[in-house]
Design a protein that fits this description.
The protein is mainly α. It folds into 2 domains: 197 residues, Preprotein translocase SecY subunit (Orthogonal Bundle), CATH 1.10.3370; 201 residues, Orthogonal Bundle (Preprotein translocase SecY subunit). The chain is built from 17 helices and 5 strands. A hairpin with a 2-residue loop joins strand 2 and strand 3. The longest helix has 36 residues. It is globular, with a radius of gyration of 24 Å.
């Protein structure tokens, strides 16, 4: 293993890409600690010391920004606007036929969709930065009733909006530079770096608050969880496909066999993000509808606060699990098109042994997808529930490192990055990084 790592740094081209990637990630992490101009950093630290800004929406968004949100830094919005824009553009393929046509046009169409994603990212960043600056102006951002801006003038607010929006655009640009000139998917690696930055503090808090025994148990469970995630993420159902002998002009192409790889978890981490985002809405409603004068809130606000804001209530857990399963089926249904695959197989003379081409093949693929998606959805739900269960059993905070969105993203990005490095190693050596 160490010899393989040594070969990476003895390959000039690959070495240059890795150092470029690490340099961009270092700049990204540095920006997470640079306060935005116009922000009263002293008041921000006082609000963080009070501990009011934890859990719910703050915990979810702060995880993707690598702690930049609660620091109100220049990269406070992080990569979240781009993630949201990418998901929206992908879902719009079902609604807007033009987007589906662009998706099927190959690289040129993908480039156009990428451009639309950039424009939408800019719009979302502008909207979110305006909301964030307005909340910081009144002190409601970190729930401590202290103004987080040096003054409440419109010039200061506009400057904060401009800086936060520009920071998001810069993060998007850095991610694209890693994809083009570095190793791996740039956006995914930036998310990986943001989540990994919170692991030491999360593990350290378990050590300090729960003791060595609980710490060791958590570490063992964490390692077993990562092994399980790696096993499931690499698991796939291989549907055999046979291609008949074809005559193209004067050439005769012999028949060959291949397979369609259908992963157990085809939806990735998207259903968990969907479910987490939807379940943060009750917390937002509670926050904005709770009276500030100490009077009793309305009955519906009390109901939401009791069942949907803590994360440790059985109703919340059950709804979270059901939403992840539902979103998994929904996302797989719009990303995997059995009819398109069946038509392509029929066009090139391919067929599944024992299944007729055309509509029977489509129905067979639908059957396989429905069967394999169920264990994949349950797997996502169980992994996503680990932080909630830990919150109940050992009184962990919402940033519990092992489980949920964090572990799924880190393991998935790590596997894909290692595979890309291995592929580049095999292009230059007979032996790759993996065996």
């Amino acid at each position: 293993m160490f010899k393989a790592i040594g070969r990476i740094f003895r390959t000039p081209d690959l070495q240059r890409k890795i150092w470029f990637t690490l340099g961009i990630i270092a700049i990204y992490r540095l920006g997470a600690f640079i306060p935005s101009p116009g922000v009263d950093y002293g008041n921000v630290q006082m609000c963080l010391a009070a501990g009011n800004a934890s859990g719910g929406l703050y915990s979810f968004v702060n995880m993707f920004s690598g702690g930049a949100l609660l620091q109100v830094s220049i990269f406070a919005l992080g990569i979240m606007p781009y993630i949201t824009a990418s998901i929206i553009v992908q879902l719009l393929r079902v609604v807007i036929p033009r987007f589906e046509q662009l998706h099927q046009e190959g690289p040129q169409g993908q480039a156009k969709l990428t451009q639309y994603t950039r424009y939408l990212t800019l719009a979302l960043a502008l909207l979110q930065s305006t909301t964030m600056a307005s909340l910081a102006r009144t002190g409601a951002l970190l729930s401590c009733q202290l103004p987080l801006l040096v003054d409440d003038s419109i010039v200061t607010v506009l400057m904060v909006v401009l800086v936060l929006t520009t920071g998001t655009v810069l993060v998007m640009w850095m991610g694209e530079q890693i994809t083009e000139r570095g190793v791996g998917n740039g956006m995914s690696l930036l998310i990986f770096a943001s989540i990994a930055a919170g692991f030491p503090s999360g593990i350290g808090q378990v050590w300090q608050t729960q003791g060595v025994r609980t710490f060791l148990i958590v570490m063992v469970i964490g390692l077993l969880t990562m092994l399980a995630v790696v096993f499931v993420e690499e698991s796939q159902r291989r549907v055999p496909v046979q291609y008949a002998k074809r005559q193209i002009g004067s050439r005769t192409l012999s028949g060959h066999s291949t397979f369609i790889p259908i992963k157990v978890n085809m939806a990735g981490v998207i259903p968990v993000i969907f479910a987490s985002s939807v379940l943060t809405l009750p917390g937002i409603l509670v926050q904005f509808n709770t009276p500030q004068d100490g009077s009793n809130p309305p009955a519906w606000v009390t109901f939401l606060a009791e069942y949907f804001t803590g994360g440790d209530h059985p109703v919340y857990m059950a709804l979270y699990l059901l939403m992840i399963v539902g979103f998994t089926y929904f996302y797989v249904s719009i990303t995997f098109n059995p009819k398109e695959i069946s038509d392509n197989m029929k066009r090139y003379g391919g067929f599944i042994p024992g299944v007729r081409a055309g509509r029977p093949t489509e129905r067979y693929l639908e059957y396989v997808i429905s069967r394999i998606t169920f264990p994949g959805a349950l797997y996502l739900g169980v992994v996503a529930m680990i932080p909630l269960i830990a919150f109940v059993l050992i009184n962990a905070n919402q940033n519990f490192p092992f489980g949920g969105t964090s572990i799924l993203i880190m393991v998935g990005v790590g596997l894909q990055t290692v595979k890309q490095i291995n592929a580049q190693m095999e292009q230059r050596h007979y032996e790759g990084l993996l065996r």
